[in-house]
Amino acid sequence: MDIIRVLIVDDHQIVRDGIQSILTGEPDIELIGSVGSAQKALSIIKTKNPPDVLIADLSMPDMSGIELTEHITENYPAVRVLILSMFSDEEYIVRAIQAGAKGYLPKQDSTTELLLEAIRVIYKGEDFFSPSISKVVMKSFVNSVKKAKTGDTSKKVQLTGREKEILKLYVEGFTNTEISEKLNLSVYTVKTHKNNIMQKYNFKSTVEMIKFAIKNNIVEW
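Above: the chain sequence. Below: its structure as tokens.
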């Protein structure tokens, strides 16, 4: 079993303590640090054993979570950043994704289960957004796509009916679990279909898959 090394950076002690209590006792997660500033986080990341996942707030006294994410993405690409923030505005979410964040959760409506799932998913290299954040991301992509007059038709791949059905639900912002319940499939089957879609198009991330699907009218939106 892989052990996921996690580092928390948030300037509020009560938030750090809350996350630490959630992670304590999880057999596949090791908390290697809990700090209140970006500079302290970077000093840990610079060691020989940096974290696999960094949980970061957006608002910090010495450096914003966006700036920290950009720095980590450029210099420590193996460290995956999960943003946990009170901000759920489109601007902040899009900027975080552009900076390289692999996941984004709102503090106000995230559960223990959601946080643990996010850590495990982004550790595997996939993107993870809460349902509410996914809808904001999709709205942003839809608005940007509507401004484009032509789509990228360089990739022409045939999807099965089931793959199109599942892809449409991803575009609408549903999670793996919600899709499995909606289609009466196992989560494993849903993920298998998703992997097939991504392999057919050679997508590198869920966000790339959804953006391309909207831009090229692969599914009805």
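Residues 131-147 form the longest helix (17 residues).
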